[in-house]
Request: fold
Amino acid sequence: MSSSLTVERHPETRPPEQRTHRQVSTLPLVAPSVIALLLWMIVPLVMTIWFSFQRYNLLNPEAREFIGFGNFTFILSDPGFWISIGITILLVVSVLVITIGLGTLLAILFDQEFPGQGIARVLAISPFFVMPTVSALIWKNMLMHPVNGLFAQITRGLGLGAIDWFANFPLLAIIIIVSWEWLPFALLILLTAIQSLDHEQLEAAHMDGAKPLALFRFVMLPHLSRAIAVVAMIETIFFLTIFAEIFVTTGGGPGLATTNLAYYIFLKALLEFDVGGASAGGLIAVILANIVAIFLMRSVARNLDT
Amino acid sequence: MSTVTLRDIHKRYTDVEVIKGIDLDINDQEFVVFVGPSGCGKSTLLRMIAGLEDISSGDLLIDGERVNDVPPDKRGLAMVFQTYALYPHMTVAENMAFSLRLAGMSKQQRLERAREVARTLQLEPLLNRKPKELSGGQRQRVAIGRALVRSPKVFLFDEPLSNLDAALRVQMRLELASLHDSLQATMIYVTHDQVEAMTLADKIVVLQGGIVEQVGSPLELYHHPRNLFVAGFIGSPKMNFLTVTVSAVNDSGTTVQLPGDASITIPVKPGSLSVGDRATLGIRPEHLKLDQTNPTLTGEVLVVERLGGETFLYVRIAGGDTLIVQTDGDNPSRMHDRALIRINGELCHLFDQNGESVPKSRRHHLTDESHEQQYQSRVSYQAE
Reply:
């Protein structure tokens, strides 16, 4: 519109025809990636939605038929599903609390000057580079094993007997393993956040009479709140789908004691070969994750504003 | 009454000494400015008074009481930081009332106190804003308000105006001067800006390399610098220095030989210099005159800097030295002109081989004797 106006005013300057061409021609250029992305997202989603309305068990694939909301009503009335949701929430919340709580304290500790600081930081961050399957195996076989594990050796050495972690406290064991993996991430983000705190602010608070606890409560914690929100959001996204640690150690048991939503869907799909049921569970998980995401995005966005 | 006294204060880090024995008396209601080039230890000294840095040795007395080991908040001081250091998540009112909150004052009382202070600083409409919604000058004022709320014995300022633009800096300078006048409080102010030092200070402390070069009123430093460093540091543009040879010494003055064979007599007391010694003559650009009839020196104009109201000429004289001459804005001199300069011996400073100033015969009429006496007493204390 504006270009046509300038054309009228200055007829001597030729309207740049190429420009309009260019505007049109950008669409075909971005189209492949847009289409690829759409396919990437839409096809699995549509297939999942399609399967979730089917009776489709791989043990008897011939008996495939449309059953409406049958899969959904079956899953929603399955007590195992509700247990898995409860366990998912418990797992996410407790690991969040542990990693952010300990991460904040460690970040303040690692922010201090001490000899060997660089090495200590690398060591503290290294668990994050171990892949979940491997770290779960390490914990299972070398640390928490009731016969060979280091913990059992220590407690037995003290005459206290051994704890069979995965039999007696399976969920706690999983929480400990996941916390160990994710503590470095929280530490890393919070440490960089704490390093960006203006030193003069601490000194001003010091002059105002703030003791260490007040310094933490009134200066450091408000400064960290934004980073904490970001850590919570990213970690929640990953914690909702914890799988490898459970698969390697407890296999969701004993009973359903460590079956979270992701593992529940896995059990449905690959152990019961119930593709329809697993798809319905997956859709419910997607909806739940979106609800969580909306709340998180809201709180984080508000935090980023202030 | 609130006085601050420093006795042989040292600050050592593991292998370097940054403050090398400082003695200083700061009187009640005095506005003291620490100046010096960067790295001279002025900020460290202020932070030691504040309690943010430990004192390696020596005594720090506030109101006659030794406070070396008293925590910062118990010393009765308040500090304004260069970056203002406001708490970003608190409103202006909460910022100002934070120290009272930590002291356990009730919410109503402390907000009342904050409002009271805000009124004197014209901050009342901003009380519910967050620091990031304020301009630089307003933040500065909040930082001052935060200090005022605590009704401290001594105010400490660490380069408070260096983050402001030039116009605002002038305005805040005036506000600080009137604040000092209305509060009648003792203030210690660190800056590297000599205009701030000259305009605000009752007493300037010139620091270099962790030692005090000179203590005195602004005019004292301007008219009677103790050594080459102070002479060069105070005044803008810098004082001109010429190497000269002493040709006669008597009671009325010392006569020196200038590079261009001219000689002038400077009314200084006969002191360490004797005939034949090399010495340094100092003359400020504003004290040099262009004079066609009776010149002392001639030279070539290298650069002309016109500031409108005044013009600076950079003149190369015989012997290769360059002198800066301040003339009025209407001076028609151009580059490569010949400049005829007259030096008035009355306005010159003379420094011996060690860079120490030779005392003048007569003191400038605006500089009183009290600061000099104070310095003398300090020296005698040091001797003990």
Remarks:
- Chain B touches chain A at residues 50-52, 72-74, 77-79, 81-83, 85-89, 98-99, 102-103, 130, 146, 150 (CB under 8 Å).
